[in-house]
């Protein structure tokens, strides 16, 4: 399997810094993450030193010769990135769990199933379960934890541990496929199975019910109609970057969403209330995903600053102080949020889109000033933030209704006052 070092072209980085990037920028970022995942697998191969990992790697390389796209799709699966990152991290620190690196066999098996390539590969069983990333989960009788041989045959058939099944869309005894929802040609996986999909303490318990899944489907249909109708660049970026939604527990009031640099392509979220919230959340979280991939290729924050523990900066969208790297992520995300409401206000009669646009364009603009004044950015980081600031500066000149501007100022002032009282800091 070929390792592919990657460098973002300068013009693509410039468009990303301004807040966009579109389909072309998204493709470059996805390629950069593919390179990262391949690098992790090469590191795993060198560190694990087991025959099971070597055999699984050979299977993956053989499948790639037959169907590179199948291997690429599985390697880019967010839970695969999280697993590989954790496995390499633990191996470098001398933490040995023979079953953890052997999950490469399940990755190879998933790629072989997608490619229609017959193979045999060792896979780990934990408590009687085998997770095939991007496909689903196999449950074996007995409930043990061990290394077993899995065989992939014609027509997506799988034989393992005395069980024979077809890894198709419909459930069979011993087989649970991942949920898939979609709108038009846009398909998403709703992952409520993979142990590496998110922080175990935050994921929902059990699987989504049919009624819950239908609600997610309805929200996606409405959100995708809104994005493709009014937010074309966001739609292109989401289509190229985000293939997976992960249900997580929500707060006592409202909703929650999150992204993770180790899980590029996944957005974790509590149950969406409606399509508009989901569309705005895509606009928010795709920014986090984009910046995370940029940071994997370009140092925007000085290394000595990235390791500092003190949190001294005010973030208009958080209740807690933020370090410089977190502040950068927030500013880039809310550049996307402001852009979403900037366009959406042309399609809704009420004041809320105007209020959201006025509030977040000003907040993100002020934070770019904090970032540039901190002194912790690298020269490329300063150029990146300066480009963000230019976009936001131009938006500050766009008119909004006086009532919306006043409400935005009131909300911002109330947040700042509450933040200062809570943290005893001035920013």
Describe the structure.
- By secondary structure, this protein is an alpha+beta fold.
- The chain is 53% helix and 12% strand.
- Among the domains are: 10-177, no CATH class; 299-427.
- The protein has helices at residues 10-17, 22-48, 51-66, 68-75, 78-92, 104-115, 210-230, 232-241, 275-295, 303-306, 324-344, 352-374, 379-396, 402-423; strands at residues 119-125, 129-132, 136-139, 146-152, 157-160, 163-166, 175-177, 179-183, 186-190, 244-247, 257-258, 266-269.
- It has a five-stranded mixed sheet, with helices on one face.
- The longest helix has 27 residues, at 22-48.
- It comes from Planomonospora venezuelensis.
- This is HEXXH motif-containing protein.
- InterPro entries: AKG_HExxH.
Give a count of the beta strands, DSSP E runs of length 2 or more. 12
> Oligomerization state of this entry?
single chain
Amino-to-carboxy terminus distance: 49 Å
Helix content: 40-55%
Structural class of the secondary structure composition?
A: alpha+beta
Number of contiguous helices: 14
Spatial extent as radius of gyration: 23 Å
> Which ranges are low-confidence, i.e. pLDDT below 50, for 5 or more consecutive residues?
none
How does the major sheet shape up? 5 strands, mixed
The best one-word shape is globular
Mean pLDDT level? 94
Q: How do the strands of the widest beta sheet line up side by side?
A: 8-9-10-12-11
**Pattern of helices and strands:** HHHHHHEEEEEEEEEHHEEEHHHHHH
InterPro entries: AKG_HExxH
Protein name: HEXXH motif-containing protein
Organism: Planomonospora venezuelensis
